[in-house]
Amino acid sequence: MHKFPLRFFSLLLCLSASMHLMMATAKSTDETAVKKNIQTEKNKQSKNSKPSKEGKTTKDGKVANSEDRSKKHVKSPKNPREVRTTVLPRNRVVEPIPPRVSMGTALGLSKKSDELNLKSNASIVVDHQNQHVIFDKNSQIVLPIASITKLLTAMTVLDAKLPMDEELVINDEDAAIYNHSRLIKGTSLTRREALLLALMSSENRAAYTLGRNYPGGITAFMAALNRKAKEIGMKNSSFSDPTGLTSKNVATAEDLAIMIQVAYQYPLIKQFTTTPSHVKEIHHREQTFLNSNRLVRSGDMEILIQKTGYISEAGRCLVLMASINNKVFTMVFLDSIGSQSRFADAVRVKEWVESPEEYPALRQLTPVKPVIN
């Protein structure tokens, strides 16, 4: 009777001890979990308290933005270095490249005024009937003449009596003489057509291929051209190529007055220089070439023969013979300033000789010898 209660109480004690142990273990586990959670929260707060890309907390609790931070922490270099974009000395001022001026302007010819207020730096006007010089401005100065050269090129070709219907082909040598041309490599044209394009629209490749296809080639052609210049009385002239693209082709305005009067004796040169336009088919496509002289295209003057020229060293050039009041006048304009001023100078001279004013002879040119061709 007494053993049963003892066993029962012993069992209760054991159960009670077990429960206390389990509760203690659970409490310990809970405390550990709580501590871990607390530490995790502290870690999160610690990470959030670090400066971010947008800003950070200052000592007084304010958040500084990135701009303030950059001003505070970015240090300027002690020795700032300038990035050099040129190889010039540091203190040297780079000046703009001055525009290229013509030889006449470089010689100061533009400073000389004249009674007609021409824009050309050198000029001469001759009464063709009696060879009286009625206007003279720097006509004895040797200057580059550009494509006026092509008149001599044409005379040299015609003097050789070469077949005008012979086919010529633009090759590499012709194409290399001038970059911008519609007469592309492989273009075929007759000698007559090449002469027309050289004189009318001042085609440089056409002029060069005329010289290249001369008997003996370009060297023989230039020798013949320079002989021709001397034969007709051009005393102060020299030529290095048939196109006029080089500034080595030089003459005086007086020499050119003689030259154009000789060229006037060649009917084909008169015809070709006064042709307003020409249409040529190149690689199955029609190309229209215009006369380089706007006075010919407009018909403002009765022009009998003419030629234009331009390179930067020569300025704008023009030679012509025109009929005014039933009288023929030879006009030469060299180194004109402005793209249209040479034509305006020709019109100004025309109006001057049309006026009732007297134009006394200043001197007389040597009469031009007749040419047999």
Kindly describe this structure.
This protein has one domain: Beta-lactamase. It is 39% helix and 20% strand. The chain has helices spanning 3-48, 66-73, 103-106, 149-159, 172-176, 191-200, 204-212, 217-231, 253-263, 267-273, 294-298, 341-354, and strands spanning 55-57, 63-65, 120-127, 132-137, 143-144, 167-169, 188-190, 250-251, 277-282, 285-290, 302-311, 315-324, 327-336, 363-364. The strands form 5 sheets. A 6-stranded antiparallel sheet has the order 11-12-13-3-4-14, sandwiched between helices. A hairpin with a 3-residue loop joins strand 11 and strand 12 (315-324). Helix 4 crosses helix 8 and helix 6 (191-200) packs across helix 7. The model is unreliable at 49-59 (pLDDT under 50).
Outline of the structure:
This protein has 373 residues and is an alpha+beta fold. It is built from twelve helices and 14 strands. The chain has a single domain, classed as 3-Layer(aba) Sandwich (Beta-lactamase), CATH 3.40.710.10.
